[in-house]
Amino acid sequence: MKATSGTDAPERCAQAFTVAATAVAAGVPTSLWLTGESTWFALPGRAAEFELPHSAPLPDLLAAVLAGGRVTACTQCAARRGIGEADVVDGVRIAGAAAFVEECLAEGAQALVY
Predict the structure, then answer these.
(1) For a surface tag, which of 5, 46, 59, 90 has the fewest beta carbons within 10 Å of its beta carbon?
(2) d(Cα 107, Cα 91) in Å, to the nearest integer?
(3) CA 5 – CA 29 distance, rounded (Å)
(4) Distance between CA 42 and CA 110 in Å, rounded?
């Protein structure tokens, strides 16, 4: 799954995290990519700043995905925001388009973009 929004479009953002956490809970191999404004959620404490009524807390959703899946911040998106490997939450990696395409081409993989 790819999250492309953050506080700029909170419903789309929450949908991406909710679907990713739900997939993990269902035992589905899950990879959540943080791109665009959602890249900020790779930083410690940023998910706790996110609020959306009637939505599960973003820190809980992120923790669920990190516990049972993979979370990746886009290389270019991170660089544009001055985010480096040493800055991100434990378990989040920074990788580029080639890694995204590789994951999408894996057997049975599907890309969902929010």
Answers:
(1) 90
(2) 24
(3) 22
(4) 22
